[in-house]
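User: Please predict the structure of the protein below. I'd like the answer in structure-token form so I can feed it into my own downstream comparison script.

Assistant: Understood. Taking the following sequence of 453 residues as input:
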Amino acid sequence: MRNPATNRGHTLRTHLRETMRLAVPVMLARLGVLTIITMDTAMSGHASGEDLAWYGIAIAPQIPLLLVGIGLLMGTIVMVAQAVGAGRSDQCGAIWRTALVHAAVVGAVMATACAFGEWFLLAMGQPEDIAAGGGRVLAALGYGLPGVLLYVATSFFLEGIGRPVPGMVIIIVANVVNVGLNWLLIFGHWGFPALGAEGAALASSIVRWCMFAAAALYVLRFVNRRRFGIGAAADPSQRLGPRMRRIGLPMGIAHGLEASAFAVMTLFAGLLGAAEVGGYSIATNLLALVFMGAIGLSTAASVRVGNAVGRGDPSGVRWSGCVAGGVAALYLAVAAVVFGLVPDWLATLYTADTAVLAIAGSTIVIGAFVAVPDGMHAVLMGALRGASDVWPATALYVFSFWVVMVPLGYWLAVLQGRGAAGLMVAVVIGATIAALLLGWRFWLVSGRAVRRA
């Protein structure tokens, strides 16, 4: 018989192997989603400083809308993972179809809201030139919101059944197509109009609909229809819609609260001028790239924790969350070192504007201290999501980002005149508090009995 230490080591190896099997392709897929925005930002910046500011200010409200939609669909991956863990894979197809309906409705509402982008930016106190350009970009981005949410619902289904690779392949191809469309629509090659940042937004919207079409085709062509109930009628007693909303609503609120807090910080930068918003947007875009890698580990934590919940394994819940957190800490630390070593070079990838570069370089250095806590709180939220413990985490987000970070950011950046660097200091403090509080919450949750949502 093996001794406890050996069993524990085997358990650690098993959890690490299964976590990385899920996490690596999901990390690449999530990075790919944001790489589209990164390329849009960088290529818009090389069109002109104004285009960079317009795209940066448009992304400020666009990302909260996108993340709220993704949060509302989080019930998909939790319900699918728990169904697989409970040996009821035949329920997964009905869960996917329910998610598609939710994605279509939410995406249509959000696309309509984006049409009023200029009005919103003016109401937030942005200068008329920034509001006008940003409004056009926001409207163009809105066209793609239903498409990307339908893609997210489908990729969540695939990740929940343990097939994350198709989503990774789709997003890699999508990035290549997006760069080509940007080249045509931003700069006006081959007879196309030179639309600048608005062209980048239109390119992204086209690509997002193509991503959904490819993902849906994969499900219908390559996923075992009988095993996963792709065409089977839903059991009304399962109440899939209410269950999905019960999980997704607090996640949507949590994502919205976090993302809108960061959006408000960008709007604070907009009050300080185009150079400040450009420099701050570069730093936050780099952080968002790192964050999306952490989201991949967060998804792996959700699936692994959800599987453990489905089979009634409290020990597996804690192991799954802790292993994902440990891997995330190593990955995020490497990113932080890169930020600290070559901030000026990173900034030049986005723009050649000397005023923007001066602001971006110093802000990226401070951003190095954000990378680890910002990614860690995402992974911990994923682990809590897999355990269906979401409302308390939402309350912790409210405290960390709205009670601490936003007021502190306004005081440092606007009232104290520290600009983009002051905003980033506030982000460091808010993200650190969120990571510590969510870590404490997961430790409590993983120490008690768990049940399927």
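That's the full token string. The two ends are 36 Å apart (CA to CA).
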